[in-house]
Amino acid sequence: MTALRGVHEFGKRAMWPWLCCAVVLGCRQSDSQAGTAGDTIPSLSSMDQILLAASKVILPPPGLAPADLPDPNSPGALAIARYCVACHALPAPSSHSATDWPQVLRRMWARMDGLPRRFNVPVPTTGERVVITRYTVANALKVSGANLPQGPGRERFERTCSRCHELADPRQHTPGDWVAVVTRMSQHMEQMVGQPLDAQELQQIVLYLEGASKATRRP
């Protein structure tokens, strides 16, 4: 289990009602772009401070606008833009694989259903949840599987990128696009865990993905 997935365990069983409140508190700060995951609020207990920090680590990073979503005027994109931003920044469908999204969504809905009404968080209907699930799965991260080509930087790519999500299929982007994608991911790492890629790591991963994209791209 990766480090980030380990943090997700906060949302299970007896801990998830507490994390719900932490998520709402964290999203209020996220909306104002105040500070990092290590920020503290003096009025909160030490346990609440920990839960708030954990919630901010697992929340989507800010910066994605509704217009940036795939097929932004589709029912799925509109539903995500309505419901997800009530508690945190807008998530990218490519932030999880197709096999992970149903589990992630079930966890989010359990938290939304359990939140006190005073937070006024809108909750999707059963039909809307089906629409959201189909949309996220259809636009999910395309994973590499077990057939990554060999090459310098492969181990760095596997070790670094698997900390936050499944390994991307190199064919998901053209060789010329990977530098922008990896740079954006490095910025997300800095926002979420305070640890961006250094210049050498970024270069190694980009060069590997550029080469792998060419090697695996279908004619």
Q: How are the SSEs placed, and which strands pair?
A:
Blueprint: H1 3-8, H2 16-31, H3 46-58, H4 75-83, H5 101-114, H6 126-138, H7 154-161, H8 178-193, H9 199-216
Counting DSSP E segments of at least 2 residues, the number of strands comes to 0
**What is the CA–CA distance across the termini?**
36 Å
Uncertain segments are 1-38
Main beta sheet: strand number and arrangement? none
> What share of the residues does DSSP label as strand, in percent?
under 5%
Radius of gyration: 18 Å
**Gross morphology:** globular
Mean pLDDT: 78
Domains (count): 3
Q: How many helix segments?
A: 9
Global structural class: mainly alpha
The arrangement of helices and strands along the chain is HHHHHHHHH
The helix fraction, in percent, is 40-55%
Structure description:
This protein has helices spanning 3-8, 16-31, 46-58, 75-83, 101-114, 126-138, 154-161, 178-193, 199-216. With 219 residues, it is mainly α. Helix content is 52%, strand content 0%. It contains 9 helices and no strands.
